[in-house]
Design a protein that fits this description.
The complex is a heterodimer. Chain A is an all-alpha fold. In chain A, 63% of the residues lie in helices and 0% in strands. Chain B has two domains: 88 residues, no CATH class; 37 residues, no CATH class. Classes of the chains: A mainly alpha, B mainly alpha. At the A-B interface, helix 2, helix 3, helix 4, helix 5 and helix 7 of A face helix 1, helix 2, helix 3, helix 4 and helix 5 of B.
Chain lengths: 187, 177
């Protein structure tokens, strides 16, 4: 049993469980599943700077910040108590492609990119800061992220969310296949 | 307005000067369905518990892994497509059941749904989000989960995402919507 929990969960277990977050939050208090709005609440709470977009009562949305804090602590539990001791399985073609760029570490986040030491390298700095910036900017511009649009929006059959989800995928495909190789070779 | 169960389409103004709090809410995905009830702060702990469940799923299904995202964008693995597809299917069935049987919240309130308004932000913003997602391999949920697993660089990603959100707020009235 313990081994089953520690091994990576297959999609048919994780997917339906994530789908159940939608009714869970609705039943707990009419809340719409979404996470990216937390970045806005953080701006409103910490640096509103007289910007109209950040002038609202963020405390009324505190549930969302509690939800984010829950994700953080749940991940802590999963990483320390339920961790998979085996290296992450990576598709052979991807592993070979990344080998060219010296990315070999098979933890969930390869340390050649996702470590404080590697932040000194241009590729890591670009991927984490520019990537994070685009995620924050784009999700607010689109009015939601993968949870708010792709899961909550599609669950309620909203076509604007389908448009957003398609554009998320278009952006990701362009980046991973056409642009990222140039960033990775920066070293 | 919030009390009745009918979903009333509300025209969205692009004029930021006229952005009342209500219109801000309509433009955004969350915070439209606000409970009328006032609870002490500790009632929010139930959302902490729900978040913990989500955080465990994000880590155990390896959705926080950069490798899983790169495989998805290269069509090398079905994993992420399976997760998104089955999550949406489950969500659609659950929402349909809630509507069909008029299921109420645990406090006995009507569950409300508000239609999303289309604006060009879903195209431009969606594309920009996708470009960032393809780089970091992290959307907002996994960013919090990465920090929880002890990945200190997650704080760098989160800080950059908050900065991106802030700059969007600054430029919002000059962007096409």
């Amino acid at each position: 049993m313990s081994e089953l929990i520690r091994a990576p969960w297959p999609w048919y277990v994780a997917g339906p469980l994530i789908g159940l977050m939608v009714p869970l939050l609705l039943l707990l208090g009419n809340k719409h599943f979404g996470i990216s709005a937390n970045m806005r609440h953080l701006c409103a709470a910490c640096f509103p700077a007289n910007i109209k977009f950040f002038q609202y009562n963020w405390k009324k949305e505190a549930w969302n910040l509690f939800f984010a804090a829950g994700i953080l602590s749940g991940a802590f539990i999963a990483a320390w108590l339920l961790a998979n001791p085996e290296p992450v399985v990576v598709h052979a073609a991807l592993a070979a492609e990344l080998e060219q760029y010296g990315i070999r570490d098979k933890s969930l986040l390869p340390q050649e990119i996702f470590s404080l030491e590697s932040l000194a390298a241009p590729r890591s700095l670009i991927m984490l800061t520019a990537g994070g910036f685009l995620v924050g900017f784009g999700s607010r511009y689109a009015g939601g992220c993968t949870s708010g649009h792709a899961i909550m929006g599609l669950s309620t059959l909203q076509w604007p969310s389908l448009v957003a989800t398609i554009m998320f995928m278009v952006g990701g495909l362009l980046m991973a296949n056409l642009v990222l190789p140039f960033i990775l070779q920066l070293g | 307005m919030y009390m009745n169960n009918k979903t009333t389409p509300v025209p969205v103004s692009n004029d930021v000067q006229k952005d009342t709090d209500f219109e801000v809410r309509v433009l955004d995905t969350v915070c439209v369905n606000e409970s009328q009830r006032q609870h002490p702060w500790w009632h929010n702990l139930k959302y902490l518990a729900a978040g913990m469940l989500f955080g465990i799923i994000l880590v155990k299904s390896e959705m926080i892994s950069w490798y899983r995202m790169q495989e998805m964008f290269r069509f090398q693995s079905f994993h992420m497509y399976g997760i998104m597809g089955s999550a949406v299917l489950t969500g659609i069935i659950a929402v349909w059941l809630i509507k069909k049987f008029k299921i109420k919240t645990i406090y006995g309130e009507q569950i409300e749904f508000h239609p999303k308004q289309f604006n060009k932000g879903q195209i431009y913003g969606g594309l920009l989000f996708g470009l960032g997602w393809g780089m970091t391999g992290a959307c907002p949920g996994p960013i919090f989960a990465q920090i929880g697993t002890g990945a200190v660089v997650g704080l760098v990603i989160l800080g950059s995402a908050v900065a991106g959100t802030w700059v969007y707020g600054l430029l919002r009235d000059r962007l096409p919507h």
